[in-house]
Design a protein that fits this description.
- This protein is an all-alpha fold.
- The protein has one domain.
- 74% of the residues lie in helices and 0% in strands.
- It is built from two helices and no strands.
- This is Type-F conjugative transfer system secretin TraK.
């Protein structure tokens, strides 16, 4: 039952990165950095 737990932080980080990507697309400065990271 505990084996499916480690995926939660990864999912949270993915959502955090996605929200950062959306924000970066608005500012336009961080966009290339996020794209190179993805």
């Amino acid at each position: 039952m505990r084996k499916n737990k480690p995926y939660k932080p990864f999912l949270l980080a993915a959502g955090w990165l996605f929200s950062g990507l959306v924000m970066a697309s608005g500012s336009g400065t961080l966009a290339p950095v996020v794209v190179s990271l993805a």
